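Chapter review: from sequence to fold.
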Amino acid sequence: MLGCDGCTMCCKTMKVRELDKPGDTWCRHCEIARGCAVYEMRPDSCRTYECIWLQTQRLEKPMAPELRPDRSRVVVGTTNQGEDLVLYVGADRPDAWRTGAFGRFVTQMKARGTAVFISRNDVLTPV
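The C-alpha cell string follows.
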C-alpha cells in the first residue's frame, strides 16, 4: 500500500479541533511535503483520518496518481456515512476541483449519482 509519501495537503485544508486549527491554514506541526513533526503524538482525528485517495490505493482500481491531493490540490473525504463526497480545497486554489483530471472525476461521480460538496469553513455547498 502506498502511504502519504510526502503529501501534506490534509495538514492545510482540514480543520483539527484538538489543535484549534482552522481549515485552510497549515498545521503548526506540519513539515510541508515531509510529514508531521509530532507524528507519534498527533491528535486522534489525525491518526484516524485517511483521504479517499489514500483509501483507494488498497483497491484493485485505485484513484489515479494525478488525483493525489498534493498534485490535484484537492483532499477528498466523505459525509452521509460515506455516501457523499466532500472536496476540501484551499482558498489559494478554490477551483482546483473543476479542471483537468479532477474535473473529469467529479463529472463521473455525479453521473453515478454521488452527491459532491465543497467544504468551506465547515459549510458544505453542493457542486
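Two observations follow directly from the output. Residues 100-111 form the longest helix (12 residues). Residues 10-126 form one domain.
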